[in-house]
Amino acid sequence: MNFFTLAAKNLLRRRGRTMLTVLGVAIAVSVLFSLLAINSGYEKELNKEVNSLGVHILAVPKGCPYEAASLIMHGGVIPKYLSDSDYRNVSTIAGVELAAPMLLHQFMKKDEKTGVSTPHIIYGINMEETRELKPWWTVEGRFFSDNETGVMLVGRGLADKENLSVGQVLPVGPKKENFTIVGILGRTGDQDDQFHFFPLKEAQRVFNKQGMITTIAVKVEDVSRIAAVSQEMEKIPDIQVVTMTQIMGTIMNLAGSARSLLLTVIAIALIISAFGIINTLLMSVNERTREFGMMKAIGASGLDIGKMVLAETVFITLSGGILGTVAAVVGSSIIESFVKGMLPYSPGGSLIAYSPELVGFALAFSVLLGLVCGIYPAVKSSRLSPMEAIRGGFE
Amino acid sequence: MSGIIEARGLCKVYRRGREEIQALKNVDFCVKAGEFVSIIGPSGSGKTALLNMLGCLDTPSSGSLKLNGIEIAGQKERDLVKIRRENIGFVFQQFYLMPTLTARENIELPLLFSKKKRSAKRIDEVLQMVGLADRGDHLPGQLSGGEMQRVAIGRALINDPKIVLADEPTGNLDSVTSEMIFGLFSELNRRGLTLVVVTHNLDLASRAEKMYTLRDGRIVGCEERA
To answer: Which of A360, A363, B71, B89 has the most neighbouring CB atoms within 10 Å?
Structure first.
């Protein structure tokens, strides 16, 4: 028997109350832990994703804010268009290695069984240029060539979700024209997994957008000349230029403010649970006044009593910490989808990056929480006069 | 021969709001080593105040109190704890056992505070001494009142104190059990332990070697058994 087992046995006397307090701590710690894990995963994933676009500069229609540019990465559709001539102008600028025009079209598709409508995104692309931008693309079946009609590629994630296979024919567009899936892209781990890809000309024709494009993705020959190239592109009247560094910065800013909002919420949750712990302990300290008096009579010092109360608190918060960390790891997907919903932009891959340091931090934090919460009840109980404690007064 | 407990002109004043209560008024009191002393008196006579002071749970307002030759008056709480640990064993009316600890663990508890080495043999010895050799692994809830009080007495003995102080040790027990507890006290006393017992039970109190009567904070009588 030592102070810790004694404290543990004391806590078991009020099982229900102890469990509720532990649960409160667990929830706070698990949210904190997830947020920190997401924090470290977020930037990494974002960088990876922007690099996976293989694009240095995006040309978008004038008036389109950076947020729209970031939406484009995930298939947001803007009701303004560039023209084929803009594309030709861009591709002739010195220093442009590659310019790829894209037309985005979004439509809602109702699931036959569940009746839930989900947005589907179609990218009209030129295959040759796109494959240069994304040399890692692989395909089951085959890629299409730019002059084919009635063909499409789909991303692996989309294919899995909707049970699509090569050779399947889907009705597309206002006239329900038949399009054959000629290939399914190998898994890329990013947003491309979720899209339909059409030859650009077919996309323009089917959706009545002849000569229109949504964006031009530009790859420069020399990364150090991004600024010069984008300046040159700005001279084309319809075009607004957004560089990937700008997009990154904007996204990080937006995400940063969303994260500080989340942190505030968590801080408040932690403070509430801290008061809960203090309250629980004060209650149990008051209930056990006589017991502490007895302990003093049989040789406990005030310090011993204080240590015992502190051990009880740390026991509560550490159990909560362990439970919370385990819950955070187990339930990471739920927490991730919650956080993704809160953030204005989130990369496609898993955001949560756990590390031993992070686990160590969460546990150290819960011990610290215990020490902070336990200090007042501990001091209070250690100062009890043993005589008053036993008799609750005097004769 | 000087006593193991020596009180001279002992006073204790409590404050309750504006009211001042004199719990002990100029008490002289002496217990020799190995003596069995009982204290009787009506409620509010100052019995418990005296016992608490003897047990170093409280310090005198004025006067002198020596335990085993050490002056208690004016000592700091930190030093009182040490004196208490080394010299005093306490037994209470309500037993005050920890409900989640077995009899054995309850007896062991003071060793946790005195940081003494815990030997299973010593605990067995104490269990034997209080007649609970076969009940060591029972929780207080599984024990009778008399057994619980015997656990508490065992707990008071584990640190090998010079003096055992008992506050109404039979107050919650029936007469047969009370008799057994007093028998145990007499047995411990025969082995050389100094005992001070506060009680309402005149019948039992009169079986101590000395019986003090306390009234309104003063010692008004002392009977010695022939």
So the answer is: B89
Q: Give the total number of structural domains in chain A.
A: 2
Q: Please check whether residue B8 lies inside any domain of the structure.
A: no
Residues A169 and A308 grouped into a single domain: no
Tell me how crowded residue A346 is: count the other CB atoms within 10 A of its CB. Answer: 22
In the predicted model, what is the mean pLDDT of chain B? 89
Residue A32 within a domain: yes
Q: Which residues of B touch A13 (CB under 8 A)?
A: 99-100
Residues A259 and A383 in one domain: yes
- At A53 the pLDDT is 66
Structure tokens at A145: 């060539």
Cα B116 to Cα B108: distance, rounded to the nearest angstrom: 10
In a domain, A55, yes or no: no
- B66 CB-contact burial (10 Å; exposed 0-12 / middle 13-18 / buried 19+): middle
**Does residue A278 lie in a domain region?**
yes
Burial of A298 (0-12, 13-18, 19+ CB in 10 A): buried
More confident residue, A190 or A85: A85
Final residue before a domain boundary, out of A237, A265, A280: A237
How many Cβ atoms sit within 10 Å of the Cβ of residue B171? 15
Q: Report the number of distinct structural domains present in chain B.
A: 1
Q: Which of A1, A13, A295 sits opposite B105 (nearest CB)?
A: A1
Contacts of A394 in chain B (CB under 8 A): 14, 21, 23, 48-49
User: What predicted TM-score, i.e. pTM, was given to this entire model?
Assistant: 0.67
pLDDT exceeds cutoff 70 at B44: yes
Contact B58 A301 (CB under 8 A): no
Question: Which residues form the domain of A274?
Answer: 3-48+251-391
Is the Cβ of B34 closer than 8 Å to some Cβ of chain A? Answer: no
pLDDT in tens, A122-136: 889 999 888 888 888
- A69 vs B217, residue with greater confidence: B217
Q: Give the pLDDT confidence of A247-290 residue by residue, as tens digits.
A: 777 777 777 777 788 788 888 888 888 888 888 888 888 888 88
Asked if the ipTM is above 0.95, the reply is: no
Write phi, then psi, for A306 (nearest 5 degrees). Answer: -60, -45
Q: What is the extent of the structural domain holding B144?
A: 34-59+76-224
Whether A244 is in a domain gets the answer no
> Is there a contact between A395 and B48 if contact means CB atoms under 8 Å apart?
yes
pLDDT digits (tens, 9 = 90+) for A214-236: 888 888 887 778 888 888 888 88
**Is A298 within 8 Å of B155 when comparing Cβ atoms?**
yes
Q: What is the CATH number of the domain that holds B121?
A: 3.40.50.300
Q: Residue A180: pLDDT above 80? A: yes
Residue whose pair of structure tokens reads 């208690």 in the numeric block: B72
Asked if the structure places residue B138 within a domain, the reply is yes
- The B residues from 75 to 104 touching A (CB cutoff 8 Å) are 77-78, 81, 84-85, 89-90, 92, 94, 96, 98-101
Contact A295 B55 (CB under 8 A): no
The answer on A205 and A295 residing in a single domain is no
Please say if the pLDDT value at position A189 is more than 70. Answer: yes
What was the pLDDT predicted at A393? 39
Proportion of chain A in helix, strand, coil states, percent, rounded to 5: 55, 15, 25
Q: Does A13 touch chain B (CB under 8 A)?
A: yes
